[in-house]
Amino acid sequence: MVRALNVSKHFHGVEVLKGIDLDVAPGEVVCLLGPSGSGKTTFLRCINQLETIDGGRIWVDDDLLGLEEKNGRLHRLHDKRIAKQRREIGMVFQRFNLFPHKTAIANVMEAPVQVRGVDKATARAEAMALLERVGLGERSHHYPSQLSGGQQQRVAIARALAMKPKLMLFDEPTSALDPELVGEVLDVMRELADDGMTMIVVTHEIAFARDVADRVVFMDGGVEVESGPAREVIANPQHERTKSFLRRILAEQNESAVPQGEVAPGGVASGTAQGGAAQGTAAE
Ligand SMILES: Nc1ncnc2c1ncn2[C@@H]1O[C@H](COP(=O)(O)OP(=O)(O)O)[C@@H](O)[C@H]1O
Ligand SMILES: [Mg+2]
Asked: Does Cell division show up as a keyword for this record (predicted)?
């Protein structure tokens, strides 16, 4: 579904992606882990063509993004073709960015009606079904200000799904939420994964990555440091940078999520990754 080859990107001469490769099969869930500043958001934004890449290639569903080959030369696609490619990818951000003056259902209907030209009755019925799917059927006529952060984020997920994307990108979708609201959003994402959606998820929720992702990719400094089956990489990271990152994240999450005394020392290395961590959030 996604193939990224040697993707590079710089901002003002600073290289923030230094040749990233990634393959994601249809229905696969890949979590991107890594410290702040490692290039995770930039990489997602490149896949969604919110940024243009400086080198490499990205295909989504065999469609080369942003470029076409004519007479053996690559040309930038017209904006209309780029917009069409972007419509097939749903993105959920850390901040939900709902329209504040529109109800939940109006937020979800907006793009299908305005962009895909779906008639309003159909769009409304589809939006309602999506809100029910994310557990918000009862709240369809609430405004964002009347919804909790977790509910707003679930509306944002429904809104992205309304465009019937082939691929969903999540950029730290729970990191702006109060801890008690994280679980409800992760549950929706987990169901989406179970339904076969192809997903790339940037997250610090290690328990979610371990339980839901097929693979994790650990990035640091604009490169992939290591990747592999989620459980293997999380339980038994090979590189020092991955180890220290996981130790740090799990320690932070243990501090906030698990009552004192339940935390086994040693974290990941001793195989306690399935304990502690986000037990209060993702694990159930
Ligand atoms: N629009 C931008 N202009 C300049 N620098 C940027 C821009 N976006 C990101 N960066 C820089 O690129 C690096 C990677 O950022 P980002 O992709 O946001 O990392 P992450 O999501 O892993 O925290 C950081 O050093 C950041 O400051
Ligand atoms: Mg980021």
From this structure: no
